[in-house]
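User: Please run a holo structure prediction.
Assistant: Happy to. Please share the sequence and the ligand.
User: Here you go; the ligand is magnesium ion.
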Amino acid sequence: MMITIKSPREIERMRQAGKIAAAARSAGSRMVRPGVTTEEIDQAIRECILSCGASPTFLHYGGFPKNACISVNDEVIHGIPGNRVIREGDIVSLDVGATYKGYVGDCAGTFPAGEVTPEAKELIRVTRQSFFEGIRYARAGCRLWDISRAIQEYAQAHGYSLVREYVGHGVGENLHEDPEVPNYVPEAGRNPRLIPGMTLAIEPMVNAGGPGVRVLSNQWTVVTLDGALSAHYENTVLITNGDPEILTIADDL
Ligand code: MG
Protein backbone atom coordinates (compact mmCIF):
# COMPACT_ATOMS: atom_id res chain seq x y z
CA MET A 1 0.00 0.00 0.00
CA MET A 2 1.40 3.35 -1.10
CA ILE A 3 -0.50 6.31 0.32
CA THR A 4 0.54 9.59 -1.30
CA ILE A 5 1.02 12.68 0.85
CA LYS A 6 0.10 15.79 -1.13
CA SER A 7 2.36 18.84 -1.22
CA PRO A 8 0.91 22.33 -0.60
CA ARG A 9 0.90 22.92 -4.35
CA GLU A 10 -0.99 19.69 -4.98
CA ILE A 11 -3.43 20.48 -2.20
CA GLU A 12 -4.22 23.81 -3.85
CA ARG A 13 -5.10 21.98 -7.06
CA MET A 14 -7.17 19.46 -5.12
CA ARG A 15 -9.10 22.38 -3.60
CA GLN A 16 -9.85 23.74 -7.05
CA ALA A 17 -10.86 20.33 -8.41
CA GLY A 18 -12.98 19.73 -5.32
CA LYS A 19 -14.79 23.03 -5.66
CA ILE A 20 -15.68 22.22 -9.25
CA ALA A 21 -16.90 18.71 -8.41
CA ALA A 22 -19.06 20.15 -5.62
CA ALA A 23 -20.51 22.79 -7.94
CA ALA A 24 -21.36 20.08 -10.46
CA ARG A 25 -23.03 17.95 -7.78
CA SER A 26 -25.11 21.01 -6.84
CA ALA A 27 -25.99 21.68 -10.48
CA GLY A 28 -27.10 18.07 -10.87
CA SER A 29 -29.07 18.11 -7.63
CA ARG A 30 -31.06 21.12 -8.80
CA MET A 31 -32.16 19.06 -11.84
CA VAL A 32 -33.55 16.19 -9.75
CA ARG A 33 -37.33 16.35 -10.13
CA PRO A 34 -40.12 14.28 -11.66
CA GLY A 35 -40.12 14.26 -15.48
CA VAL A 36 -36.39 14.81 -15.97
CA THR A 37 -34.26 12.07 -17.53
CA THR A 38 -31.00 10.94 -15.99
CA GLU A 39 -29.36 11.88 -19.30
CA GLU A 40 -30.47 15.50 -18.82
CA ILE A 41 -28.97 15.54 -15.33
CA ASP A 42 -25.75 14.07 -16.72
CA GLN A 43 -25.56 16.84 -19.33
CA ALA A 44 -26.06 19.55 -16.70
CA ILE A 45 -23.22 18.06 -14.66
CA ARG A 46 -21.01 17.86 -17.74
CA GLU A 47 -21.67 21.48 -18.72
CA CYS A 48 -20.90 22.69 -15.21
CA ILE A 49 -17.57 20.82 -15.14
CA LEU A 50 -16.54 21.99 -18.63
CA SER A 51 -17.53 25.61 -17.92
CA CYS A 52 -15.08 25.54 -15.00
CA GLY A 53 -12.25 24.44 -17.28
CA ALA A 54 -12.18 20.92 -15.84
CA SER A 55 -13.02 17.54 -17.33
CA PRO A 56 -15.50 14.89 -16.16
CA THR A 57 -13.28 12.27 -14.50
CA PHE A 58 -15.69 9.38 -14.88
CA LEU A 59 -16.16 9.74 -18.65
CA HIS A 60 -14.38 6.73 -20.23
CA TYR A 61 -12.90 5.75 -16.83
CA GLY A 62 -12.63 1.97 -17.11
CA GLY A 63 -14.95 2.35 -20.11
CA PHE A 64 -17.73 4.17 -18.24
CA PRO A 65 -19.84 5.79 -21.00
CA LYS A 66 -21.20 8.91 -19.27
CA ASN A 67 -20.05 11.93 -17.26
CA ALA A 68 -21.56 11.11 -13.87
CA CYS A 69 -22.96 8.05 -12.14
CA ILE A 70 -26.70 8.44 -11.54
CA SER A 71 -28.30 5.71 -9.43
CA VAL A 72 -32.03 5.62 -8.69
CA ASN A 73 -33.79 3.97 -5.71
CA ASP A 74 -32.38 0.42 -5.31
CA GLU A 75 -29.38 1.33 -7.47
CA VAL A 76 -26.42 1.79 -5.13
CA ILE A 77 -23.69 3.21 -7.38
CA HIS A 78 -22.50 3.27 -11.00
CA GLY A 79 -25.92 3.89 -12.53
CA ILE A 80 -25.54 4.85 -16.20
CA PRO A 81 -27.43 7.99 -17.25
CA GLY A 82 -29.89 7.44 -20.09
CA ASN A 83 -33.55 7.82 -21.01
CA ARG A 84 -34.90 6.80 -17.60
CA VAL A 85 -37.43 9.40 -16.45
CA ILE A 86 -37.29 10.41 -12.79
CA ARG A 87 -40.64 9.94 -11.05
CA GLU A 88 -42.23 11.51 -7.99
CA GLY A 89 -40.89 9.74 -4.90
CA ASP A 90 -37.64 8.53 -6.45
CA ILE A 91 -34.35 9.06 -4.65
CA VAL A 92 -31.49 9.87 -6.99
CA SER A 93 -27.81 9.42 -6.18
CA LEU A 94 -25.35 11.58 -8.12
CA ASP A 95 -21.66 10.71 -8.07
CA VAL A 96 -19.44 13.32 -9.72
CA GLY A 97 -15.73 13.51 -10.46
CA ALA A 98 -13.91 16.55 -11.85
CA THR A 99 -10.28 16.63 -12.98
CA TYR A 100 -8.57 20.02 -12.86
CA LYS A 101 -4.89 20.59 -13.66
CA GLY A 102 -4.28 16.89 -13.19
CA TYR A 103 -6.05 16.46 -9.85
CA VAL A 104 -9.39 14.89 -9.03
CA GLY A 105 -12.30 15.95 -6.83
CA ASP A 106 -14.85 13.21 -6.11
CA CYS A 107 -18.20 13.66 -4.39
CA ALA A 108 -21.71 12.23 -4.26
CA GLY A 109 -25.09 12.75 -2.70
CA THR A 110 -28.62 11.37 -2.81
CA PHE A 111 -31.51 13.71 -3.57
CA PRO A 112 -35.29 13.32 -3.39
CA ALA A 113 -37.51 13.84 -6.46
CA GLY A 114 -40.60 15.70 -5.31
CA GLU A 115 -42.22 14.22 -2.22
CA VAL A 116 -40.57 11.03 -1.02
CA THR A 117 -41.59 8.71 1.82
CA PRO A 118 -40.46 9.50 5.38
CA GLU A 119 -38.42 6.28 5.19
CA ALA A 120 -36.54 7.50 2.13
CA LYS A 121 -35.93 10.88 3.73
CA GLU A 122 -34.53 9.26 6.85
CA LEU A 123 -32.23 7.00 4.81
CA ILE A 124 -30.82 10.06 3.02
CA ARG A 125 -30.34 11.92 6.29
CA VAL A 126 -28.61 9.05 8.08
CA THR A 127 -26.35 8.33 5.10
CA ARG A 128 -25.20 11.95 5.00
CA GLN A 129 -24.78 12.13 8.76
CA SER A 130 -22.77 8.90 8.80
CA PHE A 131 -20.15 10.72 6.71
CA PHE A 132 -19.95 13.49 9.29
CA GLU A 133 -19.74 10.96 12.10
CA GLY A 134 -16.86 9.34 10.20
CA ILE A 135 -14.84 12.50 9.65
CA ARG A 136 -14.77 13.25 13.36
CA TYR A 137 -11.89 10.76 13.18
CA ALA A 138 -10.36 12.10 9.96
CA ARG A 139 -7.53 13.57 11.99
CA ALA A 140 -3.80 13.12 12.23
CA GLY A 141 -3.05 10.44 14.81
CA CYS A 142 -6.32 8.57 14.33
CA ARG A 143 -6.33 5.38 12.31
CA LEU A 144 -8.20 4.87 9.07
CA TRP A 145 -10.69 2.38 10.47
CA ASP A 146 -11.70 4.81 13.20
CA ILE A 147 -13.53 6.56 10.36
CA SER A 148 -14.93 3.23 9.13
CA ARG A 149 -16.14 2.29 12.60
CA ALA A 150 -17.93 5.58 13.20
CA ILE A 151 -19.76 5.34 9.87
CA GLN A 152 -20.74 1.73 10.50
CA GLU A 153 -21.92 2.24 14.06
CA TYR A 154 -24.03 5.27 13.21
CA ALA A 155 -25.76 3.71 10.19
CA GLN A 156 -26.32 0.36 11.91
CA ALA A 157 -27.73 2.07 14.99
CA HIS A 158 -30.47 3.38 12.68
CA GLY A 159 -31.23 -0.12 11.40
CA TYR A 160 -29.40 0.20 8.09
CA SER A 161 -26.61 -1.86 6.57
CA LEU A 162 -23.35 -0.93 4.88
CA VAL A 163 -22.26 -2.12 1.47
CA ARG A 164 -19.03 -4.12 1.77
CA GLU A 165 -18.08 -4.81 -1.85
CA TYR A 166 -17.42 -1.13 -2.63
CA VAL A 167 -15.47 1.30 -0.50
CA GLY A 168 -14.04 4.80 -0.37
CA HIS A 169 -10.48 5.47 -1.48
CA GLY A 170 -7.52 7.75 -1.59
CA VAL A 171 -7.78 10.34 -4.37
CA GLY A 172 -5.38 12.75 -6.03
CA GLU A 173 -3.72 12.54 -9.42
CA ASN A 174 -5.74 9.34 -9.78
CA LEU A 175 -9.41 8.77 -9.05
CA HIS A 176 -8.63 5.65 -7.05
CA GLU A 177 -5.52 5.61 -4.90
CA ASP A 178 -4.52 3.82 -1.73
CA PRO A 179 -5.82 3.36 0.86
CA GLU A 180 -9.23 1.72 0.58
CA VAL A 181 -11.64 3.43 2.98
CA PRO A 182 -14.21 0.83 4.02
CA ASN A 183 -17.55 1.79 5.55
CA TYR A 184 -17.21 -1.06 8.04
CA VAL A 185 -14.35 -2.42 10.14
CA PRO A 186 -12.60 -5.20 8.17
CA GLU A 187 -11.60 -8.45 9.86
CA ALA A 188 -8.03 -8.14 8.66
CA GLY A 189 -5.67 -5.88 6.77
CA ARG A 190 -3.63 -2.79 7.37
CA ASN A 191 -5.10 0.06 9.33
CA PRO A 192 -2.75 2.98 8.71
CA ARG A 193 -2.40 6.00 10.90
CA LEU A 194 -3.67 9.21 9.29
CA ILE A 195 -1.08 11.82 8.33
CA PRO A 196 -1.53 15.46 7.23
CA GLY A 197 -1.57 15.72 3.44
CA MET A 198 -3.57 12.53 2.86
CA THR A 199 -6.65 13.09 0.68
CA LEU A 200 -9.46 10.58 1.05
CA ALA A 201 -12.79 10.10 -0.72
CA ILE A 202 -15.01 9.02 2.16
CA GLU A 203 -18.27 7.65 0.82
CA PRO A 204 -20.80 5.71 2.87
CA MET A 205 -23.16 3.56 0.77
CA VAL A 206 -26.06 2.72 3.01
CA ASN A 207 -28.82 0.19 2.30
CA ALA A 208 -32.26 0.36 3.91
CA GLY A 209 -32.39 -3.46 3.80
CA GLY A 210 -29.61 -6.03 3.78
CA PRO A 211 -26.00 -5.34 2.80
CA GLY A 212 -26.02 -7.57 -0.29
CA VAL A 213 -25.56 -6.13 -3.76
CA ARG A 214 -25.23 -7.41 -7.32
CA VAL A 215 -24.14 -5.93 -10.65
CA LEU A 216 -26.66 -5.59 -13.47
CA SER A 217 -26.05 -7.11 -16.91
CA ASN A 218 -24.81 -3.71 -18.15
CA GLN A 219 -21.65 -4.62 -16.15
CA TRP A 220 -21.78 -1.34 -14.22
CA THR A 221 -24.87 -0.65 -12.19
CA VAL A 222 -24.76 -1.99 -8.64
CA VAL A 223 -28.20 -2.68 -7.10
CA THR A 224 -29.33 -4.01 -3.74
CA LEU A 225 -29.98 -7.75 -3.71
CA ASP A 226 -33.29 -7.34 -1.90
CA GLY A 227 -34.52 -4.38 -3.95
CA ALA A 228 -34.52 -2.05 -0.93
CA LEU A 229 -33.49 1.59 -1.26
CA SER A 230 -29.86 2.67 -1.05
CA ALA A 231 -28.26 6.07 -0.51
CA HIS A 232 -24.77 7.48 -1.02
CA TYR A 233 -22.88 10.47 0.30
CA GLU A 234 -19.29 11.37 -0.46
CA ASN A 235 -16.75 14.13 -0.11
CA THR A 236 -13.04 14.42 -0.77
CA VAL A 237 -11.38 15.17 2.56
CA LEU A 238 -7.91 16.50 3.40
CA ILE A 239 -6.21 15.36 6.59
CA THR A 240 -4.58 18.36 8.28
CA ASN A 241 -2.89 19.13 11.59
CA GLY A 242 -6.31 20.12 12.93
CA ASP A 243 -9.86 19.69 11.70
CA PRO A 244 -10.30 17.85 8.40
CA GLU A 245 -10.85 20.06 5.38
CA ILE A 246 -13.72 19.00 3.13
CA LEU A 247 -12.55 19.82 -0.37
CA THR A 248 -15.87 19.17 -2.10
CA ILE A 249 -18.18 21.09 0.16
CA ALA A 250 -20.80 23.37 -1.39
CA ASP A 251 -22.96 25.92 0.41
CA ASP A 252 -26.05 23.70 0.53
CA LEU A 253 -24.59 20.20 0.73
MG1 MG B 1 -15.45 7.85 -4.86
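Residues 106, 169, 201, 203, 234 surround magnesium ion (CB under 6 Å).
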